[in-house]
Amino acid sequence: DAGITQSPRHKVTETGTPVTLRCHQTENHRYMYWYRQDPGHGLRLIHYSYGVKDTDKGEVSDGYSVSRSKTEDFLLTLESATSSQTSVYFCAISESYGGNQPQHFGDGTRLSIL
Amino acid sequence: KQEVTQIPAALSVPEGENLVLNCSFTDSAIYNLQWFRQDPGKGLTSLLLIQSSQREQTSGRLNASLDKSSGRSTLYIAASQPGDSATYLCAVRTDSNYQLIWGAGTKLIIKP
Predict the structure, then answer these.
(1) How many helices and strands in chain A, by DSSP H and E?
(2) Does residue A57 sit at the B interface (CB-CB below 8 Å)?
(3) What is the spatial distance between Cα A99 and Cα A96, in angstroms, rounded to a whole number?
(4) Would an 8 Å CB–CB cutoff place A59 in contact with chain B?
(5) Is residue B11 exposed (0-12), middle (13-18) or buried (19+ Cβ within 10 Å)?
(6) A63 and A77 in contact (C-beta within 8 Å)?
(7) Between chains, do B104 and A41 touch, taking CB under 8 Å as contact?
């Protein structure tokens, strides 16, 4: 299994509070991704990173920010959490962005915003 | 805009049966198509990747086919086992910006 660790695995918080999710990889892959998974929607890309301090928006980036200060760590921040951000969040990594290398996924963070 | 659909959303079959999972997409301009497996409480595991120039890929009891012109892919599972129970997702990598567009998945239950 690819060395991807997401923390925390579960979190319950209140509307309006800031939340930061962490993804840590030991594979030294250049590309890292944050997805959210909601019933009936499949996975949707929030943000991705193509190197240290290099990030770009995905399909559903509003309300989220990311940072990547080291190759191995990719942080997802909800500045002021809303109930619509209740979801399961997955981090993924890959050696390339396009091409035929598959993405490898962490086990997810289940986030509940009350 | 590319859309990916997986029907049915859930499927239950007896152990030992051969089965087919379906994935359809609206824009044939794809770079590749991938099938993933997701176990409860876990992340996704890549099963098969079919390049746009290929018709099928095989891995063990799994065979994935791709028909770009009709916008369809199928995942064939031979001699199903209870351990195959999981949610199966397909994802299309678009030709334009290489983003992955995901289906919502088919939840498969294999009954012993």
Answers:
(1) 0, 11
(2) no
(3) 7
(4) yes
(5) middle
(6) no
(7) yes
